[in-house]
Amino acid sequence: MNRMTTLTAALIKEEDMYIAKCPELGTVSQGRTIEEALANLKEATELYLEEFPLTQSPKVLLTTFEVSDVVKA
Asked: Long-range contact list for 3-6, CB < 8 A, 24+ apart?
């Protein structure tokens, strides 16, 4: 029986594609819809884990930060 691990997905909209990233493992994929990007990220992550199995559950701390707007003259 396979055990399940919950990982994080961060999505960014870039033009007509969504970029999906897993911050715990560094895997990245894309898709035309959020659902497609997540499905592709899941597949990419499963392939990654076949080569580099988890030895412990990764923990990620997500936060936000602010930067000043840059105005071009």
From this structure: 5/54, 5/57
